[in-house]
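Run: sequence + 2-oxoglutaric acid -> complex structure.
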Amino acid sequence: MTGAETACPNLLPQDGVLLLHQAALTPADATALCHELQGQLDWRQETLTIMGRPVSAPRLTAWYGDHAYRYSGLCHAPRPMPASLCVAKAVAERLAGQAFNSVLANLYRDGQDSMGWHADNERSLGPEPVIASLSLGAPRRFQLKHRREPSLRLDLVLPAGSCLIMAGPIQHHWLHQLPKTSRPIGARINLTFRRIIPS
Ligand SMILES: O=C(O)CCC(=O)C(=O)O
Ligand SMILES: [Mn+2]
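>> structure
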């Protein structure tokens, strides 16, 4: 299941850790998992609460984990992971060097689906969470910007089968987003593995 390994430098100049494992899965495994998850997961169109107003999320999501997870007015109840996600979780755990107990799957159906600027800084993730993000499907443009230094920005393309790891104080100092694009683009899936600390 695991692709070739290469040395992985920290991509951030300061205030956090960002590691990109280009080939966490082989291309064949990444393609098979992408198709399996599109058909198998319980994809939902969620309504978020942003600044007190209901907003339809511009993507589909599916949540699985041992504990409830709350963000943007949503509460995901505990739900066991299907076997396909457990295999992907094991890959993410090996690369991140820590155990995860939840995954948020995001399905971006076309270039108009997206996720806006945010940080994964919910209290239930702890002060410096390690988050592993596995990419599947079409290459995914992923951007970061520093909260206080406007000149500090990163623009990455995450290929299918890659695993991006955010760690250290990154969530305190940086925001991340998956922008919309007007270019024709196929479906993209992101699996974001987290460790929820039960309250
Ligand atoms: O699709 C992505 O890489 C963004 C996912 C993300 O930031 C999240 O689920 O919190
Ligand atoms: Mn995030």
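>> summary
The chain has a mean pLDDT of 95. Residues 63 and 104 are 5 Å apart (CA to CA).
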